[in-house]
Peptide/nickel transport system permease protein (Tistlia consotensis USBA 355), 329 residues
Amino acid sequence: MAIAPEEIQVSPGLFGRVIDGGRRFFDGDIFYAFKKSPLTIAAFVVTVLMFAIALSAHWLAPFDTMNLSSLNLMDARLPPIGWQFNDGGMMVDPDPRFLLGTDEQGRDLLSAMMFGLQISLEVGFASVILAAVFGTLLGLVSGYAGGRVDSFIMRVADVQLTFPAILIALLIDGATRTMMDPDTHQAFKLPILILAIAASQWVNFARTVRGSTLVEKNKEYVQAARVIGIRPSLIMIRHVLPNVLGPVLVIATLSLAIAILTEATLSFLGVGVPATEPSLGTLIRLGQNVLFSGMWWLTIYPSLVLVILVLAVNLLGDWLRDALNPRLR
């Protein structure tokens, strides 16, 4: 029997599924709520702009501040455009090459902020991803296994909650300093910083995922998977995990802002990223050392960028929490 052409079903393929998924997203409630919130749109635009600047810093920055051989001390202590600087009784005029002025080493502040933003976001993202993976796995195991395993993991989490995040990061940094020689510690300072921040944030992910897992593991689809003999590890990964990722996404967004602030605080205290690769926190610390000499721009501009970035990410996280929770709509 011949089959009519209209009865033949063709697989849409990956591209078709992507197009269909995008169409459903733009027609969904989340995108509708996003369009109705001008503050969220502004926060999204600012966040995307910050990320774009950080990712393209090597191409957008007027000067390569990472290359110390390119610095010229004759360009040091120049004020921003539109300002003058009284340096020991001598008025210093701005240089049009340096829009936001320079520091004591002749480093262009605008370029340094672009590279600093890149490092701050790199540390923030890496630490949040590490904390999310580790905390989510522990939360899954704790909630699904229960018993002594659950009690042990949650007691460890309770003990860690008694310590501030900054203190935990300082303890990890101090421990690694004693176990490594100075050159090795300097070479691994960035991974150590990421590990220290992640170690202070995994608890939020673990406790949230544990609570969601306790609810999901008693539902019918999990019981059915047990009956047909699927291994517990596969049940957690294939069935439970996709249903608890909503809160994880919200926590990750809010934790990104906290991680950026934690990195800035540690760098301000001198235990963050190396001074040769300054983040926003390092730039603020270096500017604070010469603040009373009148070089205010070295502290004000990096601080403004840090405040705007953290505020935009926090606003996105708050909106995402409300959008993914039907009770708050």
The beta strands are 85-87, 90-92.
